[in-house]
Amino acid sequence: MIVNSLIIKVASRCNLNCSYCYVYNLGDKTYLNQPKLMSDDTFIKIIDRTLEHCLEQNLKIFTFIFHGGEPMLQKKEFYINFVNTANTVLNKNSIRARYAMQTNGLLIDKKWSELFNNLKIYLGISLDGYKEINDKYRVDHKNKGSFDKVVKGLKIGQKFLKSQPGILSVIDPSSDPIKYYNLMKDLRVKNFDLLWPHANIDLNPEGKPWENSSTKKSIVYSDWLIKIFDIWYKEKKQTNMNITMFNSIIGLILNFKYSGNEDFGLDEVGNLVIETNGDIQVVGALKLCGDGFTVSGASIKDHSFSKALETKLANLYYNSHKYLCNKCMECPILEVCGGGPIYSRYSSVNGFNNESIYCKDFVKLIVHIQNTIYSSLPEIYKDKFESIDYEEVVGFLDNFDNDFNQEVITENFKKLTSFSS
Amino acid sequence: MKNKFKIDLSSKGLNLDDFKNHALESNLQAAQIRGGERVDYAKVTFRRIDPHWPDA
């Protein structure tokens, strides 16, 4: 099992208090036991473990992603020491390190930008859309919206950074998708991505129980995304904008290798999270499943990455697109969808033995993209391919016998249900 | 139903010239740059398994 990137929680506190944040506001309280900032001892151990893993797996490229909390609450010296040490240790062994940071953008100034340029740290900024939408969720500790400050930070970054920062937005289906898309254009953002809100079978994106099952089955997210996809696809040649989610789905439909990610496709998910104290965990979005859910007992001090991947939840996460419920395994679009992000499949009753809360959204979006690609292909390429119908796939899923194959208790079934409470 | 979902253009002897000024051109070029091995299109990939940063 290969880990090719680490999400490093260099600070466990944040200067924002976003209502949907899985670190602070969706039930998990483990951050309270974390040191506020990562120590030098911990980062040195991270680099040692990374070298150990790269040599063990013969990796030549490794990616470090600085994350939080808010990673810019950490000192500048920390980054200088981290990057210089990692480059020295890894380059000596012909391993190249890449660096990125996901920030809320509030503290970006010229000095930070120069530091990021010098250390070759690529920046992503979280911004959920236009002011009314962003400021509904992304607020400070006095409940004041962050939009104006984030846009100011983005513009400073655009002015001083050599690599233009990207934007990461959580989808809000109540917003106007075209207004969102036009904002990205107006802000001259060339690379952005859209995140499914962190929700699962039990809890809605606000961390509360879903009101009724019809809410769960709605396809408001795909309808919202399709409006953006259509205009983006039409203007793509002119705008030169990249939307990661759409490019990924296009790549998967066209059968390009390495198009998958932790959301879609069938690839393994080779990233781990290092908490501020050096604990090794899996994707933070799984904190939504309960207080302490992601705590594995593994630590950078005592465990190699390979050992950490042997822990139950890390192993399941790594194989997110392999260990799926029966319905997913038989779904016609499995190779593109891959079951969706694992956190969206959890319920306290069945563990991870469910289709995603966003299942029908995935079907509608993926089928729409497949149909759009098909219809835009030059005629000579259409032979032997067919567009597929949304109703056809949903009909299949709705009529699927969920007890199919359950007489034989499969390895998947045991793994998935073992997380039920 | 499974077999008809993917559109594997490589199996059709893909010719990039057929996609000049087509919406998919950049996706196909990106795949070709990497010899069909890697689609290096996405730069905002912090939660992705194999991020495609701009090569510094």
From TrEMBL, chain A:
Cofactor: [4Fe-4S] cluster
Annotated InterPro entries: Aldolase_TIM, MoaA_NifB_PqqE_Fe-S-bd_CS, rSAM, rSAM_sf, Sulphatase_maturase_rSAM
Superkingdom to which the source organism belongs: Bacteria
Pfam families: Radical_SAM (PF04055)
This protein's UniProt keywords: 4Fe-4S, Iron, Iron-sulfur, Metal-binding, S-adenosyl-L-methionine
Residue ranges of domain Radical SAM core in the record: 1-234
The name this protein goes by in its record: Radical SAM core domain-containing protein
TrEMBL record, chain B:
Superkingdom per UniProt: Bacteria
The protein, known as: Uncharacterized protein
Source species of the chain: Aquimarina addita
